[in-house]
Amino acid sequence: MQVQWDNLAEIPEQVRTAIEERVGRLVAQHDDILQVRIAGRASRHHRHGGSEVHILARAKGHEITASRAGSDLSRALHDAVDAFAHELRKLRSHRVERRPPEHAAGPPLLGLVDRVLREQGYGFALVDDGTTVYFHRNAVGGGLSFDELQVGQRIALNVEPGDEGPQATVVLPAGPDAPSP
Predict the structure, then answer these.
(1) Are 156 and 175 in contact (CB under 8 A)?
(2) Could you tell me the residue range of the domain that residue 59 belongs to?
(3) What is the pTM of this model?
């Protein structure tokens, strides 16, 4: 996971490194976080301070945001990271409450690996109905390794609508009794 910094050049490198490490530890508990962006700007809210920091994390199917203002950019940054940690805890507790029962059926769709862009960390699958579906390396599980996926390999996947089309939330090996395409 890479952190993208915008308009925060005045933050010292050691502070950035410490923030990236903290964000990395927070995100490590959420394997569906795809991207984190931290942006700073002068605040228009004179009562809240002169600087504002926004953190945006893209996850499978949704976004997580946290914003804080402070008297200086460094204070706003630390407060925004604390707020981001709180939002991630809320997301985790919400997921625990909505976890499907253990006996729930596995992924309903079958397909083939169509393309794997290893350096970018994502790929595409061709579902049996002919739809092309995006998947991120973090969606791959069940004994499959993203780095070892082969074009034409049979897979099972859960699909949901994404920002730019269908995306797989889970990619697993197809069962031994899975029909051929």
Answers:
(1) yes
(2) 3-97
(3) 0.49
